[in-house]
Design brief:
Elements (H helix, E strand, L loop, with lengths): L10 E5 H10 L18 H17 L3 E4 L2 E4 L1 H11 L3 E8 L7 E8 L2 E6 L5 E7 L2 H11 L12 E5 H12 L3 H9 L7 H10 L3 E10 L5 E10 L4 E6 L6 E7 L1 H10 L3
Antiparallel strand pairs: 1-7, 2-3, 4-5, 4-9, 5-6, 6-7, 8-12, 9-10, 10-11, 11-12
Length: 267
Amino acid sequence: MASTLNGANPSVLLSTEELLAVLDMLQANFIPGLDGDIAQALSSQERQLMLTTARHSLLARELLRENENGAALHRRIMAAVGACVYSQGAILAFHWPPKSGQPSRFFGHFQGNEVVAHTRPKEILHRFVIFDERAALVDALLEAFEHEPTPPAPPWKLAVARDLLATARSDAEAGRLDQAMRVLSAHGQSDPAVRVLVQTFAASPRVTILQLLKQGNEKSALSQTMTLVQDKRYLWMMLPDDEARQQLVVQTSSVAEVANYLTHWFD
């Protein structure tokens, strides 16, 4: 999908060099999803040449315009990249499809009335999409990671230590389902919830880890982490249950419940 800066959900596709040039014009040098500055290994002169070439590319694509006061970025690019630079709330998401070792990434940002998704369609590319509301961005995130509705599930809920859950998951993935069930059952977890959770781990599920960030009172930052584990039958949502984040609440959920949680956590 090429850049479409008009209409519903405007979007722009930038190369890493073009993004660095935009950040330079915004007097910033980093946003989440920018994996190391490719200009770090360059001399000052080489870096300046790279930025100049990238600005020429933006001019050629009519994403940058020159006027009597210098150069001005297209207002949509200012809004999209600016929301990522000066974010007041963010969703940083990493997704592992079934049987895949490489995660996909999705970065959502909220700044004032701006709601922006930043994705990496290729290693050298950055796509920014502007949405009208948070709910639309959350829907796009879940759709991008193929978290689809599942049949209604019993309202199972487990309280599990993070290290025990990791051990049980490792056993299940290795085919040691009985051992995984014993690990969890030995610490007071009930069957059949344990059995179904272990079967989900063994089914090569899709896994998404999300970090939620927002400004608190007096410029403090608030954060939350969430893990989603889904096979064809069940979607499990995992949230920390203590300040040290060593205990997890593991519960059956739905795409609608997850979307509602992600949308309203930022209220």
